[in-house]
Amino acid sequence: MDEGRAPQFVRDDRLMMALTEINDALENITRPAADGLKHPIIFIVGCPRSGSTLLMQWIASLGVLAYPSNLVARFYANPYFGVRAQQALYTFDSKKQIIPEQTSEDAYKSSYGHTTGALAPSEFWYFWRRFFHFGENQKICDFHTGGHNLRGFVDELALMEMAFSMPLVMKAMILNWNLPDLYSLFDKCLMIDVSRQPEENAESLYFSRQDFFNDTEKWYSFKPPAYEWLKDLPPLEQVAGQVFYTRQSIERGLEKIPDHSVLKVSHEEFCKNPAAIYSQIKAKLQYMGTEMPEYRGIQQFEKTRTSRLSPAEKETISAYFKHLQTGAHTG
User: Fold this and answer.
1) HSE-CB for 112 with a 13 A CA cutoff
2) Which CATH number goes with the domain that contains 94?
3) Fewest CB within 10 A of the end CB: N or C in the chain?
4) Does 221 fall in a domain?
5) CA neighbours within 13 Å on the CB side: how many for 29?
6) Helical H runs in 103-195?
7) Which range marks the domain in which residue 158 is found?
8) pLDDT tens, 283-309?
9) How far apart are CA 331 and CA 329, in angstroms?
């Protein structure tokens, strides 16, 4: 599972064994009954390395939406239990005997989606993989007929919302290729699509390979169906294709979802004015019957970027984007 990863990204076998034992024990424990979701559920979608982790960290800092924390995610087979454990160990522990009061020092630190701290937001992919079966790529062709546990997925989310007593938000990029299908499972749902300048996104994916695997030849993160032939291209063209076809699928999927359930967020604009993005989220949720408080968060994120690519490498990425835009291949 960890073949080729750089040492700092290799999983600890002792931890994995402990989590497996805990979750095997928790999976079939009787849960309370939850009568469906009471609020719109919010899903963050977009390309890997597009700013989704920062967006989730910002949402977590506001304290007005629930989300799967690193602590809750350890109980992926029974996240309701995870939420109640978090409440017992932190939320309802006024003396903070177990988990100390959280500071803002590490609130926006992360490494390739991995955040630090018990209450920091988790990507939660172990939970998603309980219910959905993926092949070599992440597109599910038999979403409603392939034996995926759709009812169990919705029920677990409803239980989490019930335990938190507030609307629930989480990343959903693992289903970038099935967004209308995901939307169809809920009465009220908001898809927040975070995007980044394509060439910049592709460059970030390229160096993610280097940092994560010490090898730019190895594929990083989710695979679109076009992976079947992208994998035979040079790495710079691969990452351009990964961004192009992922964005293409997201945009085509969101076109099939009502406008009131879609919010498009530019990473650049988010960094400049988070309050404006909050106002848009608030308006979308209000339209669906959920009121949100006034904004009390950070006013701006400093966005600094120095390219690590040579001019020739940049041109390779730009040229391949232009090539794909001509429709030379289909995703």
Assistant:
1) 17
2) 3.40.50
3) N
4) yes
5) 15
6) 125-131, 150-164, 179-183
7) 18-26+36-325
8) 999 999 999 999 999 999 987 677 889
9) 7
Asked if residue 276 is part of any domain, the answer here is yes
Report the C-alpha gap between 44 and 59 in whole angstroms.
11
- The string of pLDDT tens digits covering residues 6-65 is 677 778 899 999 999 999 999 999 999 888 999 999 999 999 999 999 999 999 999 999
Residues 270, 276, 278: CA angle, nearest 5 degrees: 85
Q: Is 147 left (phi over 0), alpha (psi -120 to 50) or beta?
A: left
pLDDT tens for each residue of 90-107: 999 999 999 888 766 667
Does some domain include residue 6? no
Residue 263 bridge partners (DSSP): 192
Taking the complete model, does pTM exceed 0.90, yes or no?
yes
Q: How many domains, the chain?
A: 1
Question: Alpha carbon 196 to chain centroid distance?
Answer: 15
DSSP letter for each residue of 87-107: IIIIIT-TT-SSSPPP-STTT
- Angstrom distance (rounded) from CA 202 to CA 321: 10
pLDDT in tens, 140-167: 999 999 999 999 999 999 999 999 999 9
Of 61, 58, 59, 65, nearest in space to 41 by CA:
65
- How far CA 6 is from CA of 78, 215, 231, in Å, comes to 30, 9, 21
The pLDDT score that the predictor gives to residue 328 is: 61
